[in-house]
Recover the amino acids of this structure.
């Protein structure tokens, strides 16, 4: 049960970047999983080359991934803003990011070979006693990182000027530019942040699990499920939704067994899509556009 | 203050404005009137940068606007209250105001500007924490105007302010607009469906028809010329559009 | 749209080449294999095109239908069912799968449909991987009877069938409905088109052909190390890429795209190995951004700018 909570927080962390892009710009980044893995590789590289503790590498990973996010936005996503309606923007963003998967996945394969990697540090595999249950150190760190990031994001979006610009641009981009907000720059920075968030998730994954160039899809699907649970555009509901998924998954695995862990998540996903596509946290119907 | 010359603007392949030339002088209130779809809002959007003209130029205090993005134009001192208000529905009244001051110059003076807006529209101070989507029509309009004023503009464009509002509320808002124009020398351009309102408040007017300017002049003269009003607007100049 | 008579005769000549050439020239088994793979890709991409290019439903989990066809054909054939029948059943089972999945997911718009299809394909892949964890192969008797010719002609035949079916479908009233749904679903609904039925039928037909493609592929393979590999996303990506680069929403596009795909694969697989897919990703992005009608659009543009008379290609 407690394990479910730890995993759930991590699921929430994974989803933040995807939710941000979708909520703000209505772009569906199917390459999100790929960027997570990329962040993992960066951290892995820093660890094997310089012995840098992965959790300490997080700020560096953030910087690197942020820059990558800016480039990706500038080159591939910003031309889409010229498209007239949201539907075609969404479709094209899916196609383009689908292409990005294959470019980046294979770049990673070329650089790092297709083997499975994970960070094995002194603390890997160790557990701590917490109110009677044994919890893994990596799981706890992952949980802590997820909570910290979620809190930071909450404050940035809610209290800072930039956060208000983002919210305004999300709710009405034209009106936002009438207030003097440079909407394109806001989108650019948001993309950087979204990819950086993916990168942080990657650090956690490479420390707690393992990565290989093609394993992005697995995490992408988790993020999809959590995003749907949280409701479109509902960024603050993402970590809670992740926790719920973590718990539901723990229950499901208990019933059907571990090899079908991912299937449990996917089934939950289908069920939600059919019966409550607006997510668990949103009031009202699913609107579009 | 602002001069537009030979503006032609399109929505896709459809031409909306034909060879528009007009002048706005500092400190005055100018109105654009005309029937629905005549192009009044399009002119406003072209000035503020939401629509880019295919031909012609717009000069504001010596600077050419046609190639600039909207947020830069706001930075230069032109602000617009858009048709339909376009508030940020999930942000509070106070946040909507704060976001209105997003340009560099405006953000420095943000808190004093907020105080000023609260003086003009006290109800906004009362409802500071309320989410904008839950306000009444009149309150929303006041908030929209307040938000536009937060940018500390030199020129304020107001698009179809009176739609859906009761006459009392409209009267009050107009009063505020006129006060601000007189006290702060804020130049105002008003687009209005309601000819009576427009002419009662403005110094000068342009009559727009099918994307062209068909008449202009001091509002007193326009009002007096019954034939003009009848012909172009089908209106008794003392009353509402018929 | 009228077919220029010259165009039909060109097509006929090409078809004849394909039919006759292997009989008179010994192309070698590797070339024959490549051609069979080409046919598989043509069928697969044309079927994705019907759903995505013509009806506007972008399906990112297409591998599920392909894989279903492969698996079922293999299992049936192994247990003695004649190959032609097995392939047909493979196609039908894929359509059945699509029907079951389609009912709940087609209510979803755009992004959610795509996400749903990926999720389902992945779920299927994992389940299959767990049910068939070890390798699958055909008994030795099959190997001794191996003859590449029936495989070649079967593949060719089904590819032609797919093209003709696509042509008839697109030209019919149903085809018009498909395009309407793609261009503006709400407007289509308002004009009385049952958009759900349109999407559903397009999905069924599309999945059927994907299953057939799987059958052809299965016919040509004796050994599957991990059969779940045929459910992997690459079997969605390659037809998708062929369609988008070739020209989505056209009949010729998937053919051109598939040829392009195979040729580039052959060139780069030597140098880059597994990573040759990177080329396709790099190509896909500019095509989506700047040339949405793909190579077909490009050819049309070239034609016009060279001053030639434009042939009436359907768009």
């Amino acid at each position: 049960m407690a394990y479910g909570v730890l995993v759930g927080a991590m699921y929430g962390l994974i989803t933040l970047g995807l939710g941000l892009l979708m909520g703000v710009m209505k772009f569906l980044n199917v390459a999100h999983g790929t960027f997570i893995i990329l962040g993992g590789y960066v951290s892995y590289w820093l660890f094997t080359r310089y012995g840098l503790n992965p959790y300490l590498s997080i700020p560096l990973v953030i910087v690197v991934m942020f820059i990558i996010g800016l480039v990706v936005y500038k080159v591939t996503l910003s031309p889409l803003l010229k498209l007239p309606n949201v539907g075609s923007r969404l479709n094209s963003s899916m196609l383009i990011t689908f292409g990005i998967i294959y470019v980046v996945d294979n770049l990673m394969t070329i650089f790092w070979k297709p083997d499975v990697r994970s960070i094995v540090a002194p603390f890997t595999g160790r557990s701590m006693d917490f109110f009677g249950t044994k919890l893994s150190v990596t799981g706890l760190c992952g949980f802590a990182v997820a909570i910290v990031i979620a809190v930071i994001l909450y404050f940035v979006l809610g209290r800072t000027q930039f956060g208000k610009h983002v919210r305004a641009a999300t709710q009405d981009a034209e009106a936002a530019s009438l207030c003097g907000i440079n909407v394109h720059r806001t989108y650019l920075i948001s993309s950087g942040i979204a990819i950086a968030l993916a990168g942080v998730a990657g650090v956690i994954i490479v420390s707690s699990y393992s990565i290989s160039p093609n394993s992005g899809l697995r995490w992408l699907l988790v993020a999809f499920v959590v995003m749907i649970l949280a409701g479109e555009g509902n960024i603050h509901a993402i970590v809670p939704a992740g926790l719920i998924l973590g718990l539901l998954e723990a229950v499901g695995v208990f019933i059907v067994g571990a090899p079908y862990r991912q299937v449990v998540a996917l089934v939950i996903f289908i069920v939600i899509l059919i019966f409550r596509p607006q997510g668990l946290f949103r009031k009202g119907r699913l609107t579009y556009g | 203050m602002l001069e537009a010359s030979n503006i032609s603007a399109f929505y896709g392949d459809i031409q909306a404005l034909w060879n528009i030339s007009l002048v706005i002088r500092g400190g005055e209130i100018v109105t654009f009137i005309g029937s629905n779809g005549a192009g009044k809002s399009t002119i406003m959007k072209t000035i503020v940068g939401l629509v880019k003209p295919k031909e012609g130029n717009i000069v504001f205090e010596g600077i050419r606007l046609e190639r600039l993005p909207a947020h830069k134009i706001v930075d230069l001192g032109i602000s617009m209250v858009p048709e339909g208000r376009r508030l940020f529905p999930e942000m509070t009244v106070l946040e909507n105001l704060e976001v209105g001051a997003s340009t560099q110059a405006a953000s420095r003076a943000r808190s004093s500007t907020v105080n000023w807006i609260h003086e003009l529209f006290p109800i906004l101070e009362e409802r500071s924490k309320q989410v904008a989507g839950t306000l009444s029509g009149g309150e929303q309009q006041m908030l929209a105007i307040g938000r536009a004023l937060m940018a500390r503009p030199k020129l304020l464009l107001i698009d179809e302010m009176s739609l859906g509002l009761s006459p009392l509320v409209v009267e009050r808002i107009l009063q505020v607009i006129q006060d601000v124009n007189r006290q702060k020398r804020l130049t105002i351009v008003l687009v209005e469906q309601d000819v009576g309102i427009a002419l009662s408040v403005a110094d000068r007017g342009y009559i727009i028809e099918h994307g062209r300017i068909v008449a202009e002049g001091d509002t007193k003269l326009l009002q007096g010329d019954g034939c003009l009003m009848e012909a172009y607007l089908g209106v008794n100049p003392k009353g509402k559009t018929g | 749209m009228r077919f220029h008579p010259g165009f039909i005769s060109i097509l006929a000549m090409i078809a004849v080449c394909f039919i006759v050439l292997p009989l008179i020239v010994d192309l070698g088994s590797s070339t024959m294999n490549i051609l069979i793979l080409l046919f598989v890709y043509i069928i697969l991409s044309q079927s994705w095109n019907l759903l995505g290019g013509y009806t506007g439903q972008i399906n990112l989990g297409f591998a599920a239908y392909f894989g279903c066809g492969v698996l079922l054909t293999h299992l049936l054939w192994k247990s003695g069912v004649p190959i032609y029948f097995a392939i047909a059943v493979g196609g039908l089972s894929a359509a059945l799968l699509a029907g079951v999945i389609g009912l709940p997911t087609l209510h979803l718009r755009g992004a959610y449909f795509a996400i749903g299809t990926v999720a389902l394909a992945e779920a299927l892949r994992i389940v299959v991987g767990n049910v068939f964890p070890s390798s699958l192969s055909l008994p030795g008797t099959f190997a001794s009877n191996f003859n590449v010719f029936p495989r070649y002609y079967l593949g060719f035949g089904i590819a032609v069938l797919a093209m003709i079916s696509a042509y008839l479908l697109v030209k019919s009233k149903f085809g018009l409905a498909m395009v309407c749904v793609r261009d503006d679903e709400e407007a289509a609904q308002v004009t009385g088109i049952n958009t759900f039925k349109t999407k559903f039928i397009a999905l069924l037909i599309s999945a059927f052909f994907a299953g057939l493609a799987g059958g052809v592929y299965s016919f040509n393979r004796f050994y599957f190390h991990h059969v779940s590999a045929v459910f992997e996303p690459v079997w969605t990506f390659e037809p998708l890429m062929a369609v988008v680069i070739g020209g989505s929403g056209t009949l010729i596009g998937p053919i051109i795209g598939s040829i392009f795909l195979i040729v580039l694969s052959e060139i780069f697989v030597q140098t880059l190995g597994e990573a040759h897919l990177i080329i396709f990703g790099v190509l896909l992005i500019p095509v989506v951004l700047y040339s949405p009608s793909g190579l077909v659009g490009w050819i049309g543009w070239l034609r016009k700018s060279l001053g030639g008379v434009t042939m009436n290609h359907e768009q």
In short: Residues 30 and 36 of chain C are 10 Å apart (CA to CA). Chains C and B do not touch (no CB pair under 8 Å). The radius of gyration of chain C is 19 Å. The first helix of chain C runs from residue 5 to 24.
